[in-house]
Amino acid sequence: MQAWQVHENGEPGEVMRLAEVERPTPGDGQVLLKVRAANINFPDVLMARGHYQVRPPLPFTPGVEICGETEDGRRVIANPALPHGGFAEYAVADSAALLPAPESLDDAEAAALHIGYQTGWFGLHRRAGLEAGETLLVHAAAGGVGSAAVQLGKAAGATVIGVVGGAGKAVVARELGCDVVIDRRAEDVVAAVKEATAGRGADVIYDPVGGEAYAQSAKVVAFEGRIVVVGFASGSIPSPGLNHALVKNYSILGLHWGLYNTKNPKLVQHCHEQLTELAARGAIKPLVSERVPLGGAAAAVQRVADGVTTGRVAVVPALSLENGAAV
Questions:
Q1: Within the chain, where are the H helices?
Q2: Which residues of 112-146 are buried (b: 16+ CB within 10 A; e: fewer)?
Q3: Cis amide linkage into residue 83, ω under 30° from 0
Q4: Per-residue pLDDT tens for 54-74?
Q5: CB count, 10 Å around CB of 223?
Q6: Residue 21 and residue 11: Cα distance in Å, rounded?
Q7: Which residues have C-beta within 8 Å of that of residue 164, sequence separation ≥ 6?
């Protein structure tokens, strides 16, 4: 089979190589899956660079989220067991963690439903307790993680403010349903949020960016607000001032979704049921901005690394280089 492999750490576009390899052999409790679609996540970038908390042995195949097909023809959502990741024709996954792919979503959309939406659901509902009528601020609102949070926030009855970088991403954020969109490249984020909220600030802030975005969050969080720290796509990890959290009376909440897979897997299943129901009634629908063939995976991962994509980019092995196209 064909699979992308990382033999040395570096930028994805430089270190990912397409190779002909043997199909992976499932271990105890694992199952072989034919990859129908693999969604690109920022951890794939970090793993290629050697900067992620999980460091699979070299060489490894990246791709942490797929819609796959079992030997008996079932469509499932899975997190492949590294080093046999999803940017390949076949992957392996733990059989106990397989989730049914919603019938309302195609393969690429189903692959994109899992990590980003689970992270959003746990962050907004389990950690922050977002309530209808509250104001939710989402950084990187047009990206894969942010777009999921925007849709989940709207489904929960919140007023959603989206922060994006650039006019093109602003258009995407509005289409996703943001009530207010702020282009950080053209506007003062702090002033714009205060204007949009009549000076009160945001009740819940969803931050997958870190760096300057977190500094802005601390300035616009409302009384009894909650800042959910999801990741550091900016590459800069902030150092929160706990005295500031005390005097402004807000909470800083960390979210590592992967821990729930081992600490409380039943809650992951419950979340998937909630997401499936939301997808069935059209309240959420993953934004898949591109579907690329397997041969285009390395270039696509590099585009995600460079921050030039919107929504999710999915690798679909059944596509050929001739008919694979952005959609």
A1: 12-15, 42-49, 107-112, 115-121, 144-155, 167-176, 189-196, 212-220, 242-248, 258-263, 265-280, 297-306
A2: bbbbbbbbbbbbbebbbebeeebbbbbbbbbbbbb
A3: yes
A4: 899 999 999 999 999 999 999
A5: 10
A6: 22
A7: 140, 141, 142, 170, 172, 173, 181, 182, 183, 184
In angstroms, the CA 93 to CA 126 distance is: 26
- Rounded CA-CA distance 150/176 in Å is 7
Residue reference for tokens 């570096």: 10
CA atoms of 149 and 136, how far apart (whole Å) = 9
Burial (CB count <10 Å: 0-12, 13-18, 19+), residue 86:
buried
pLDDT 10s digits, 223-236: 999 999 999 988 89
What is the distance between the alpha carbons of residues 137 and 121, in angstroms, rounded to a whole number? 15
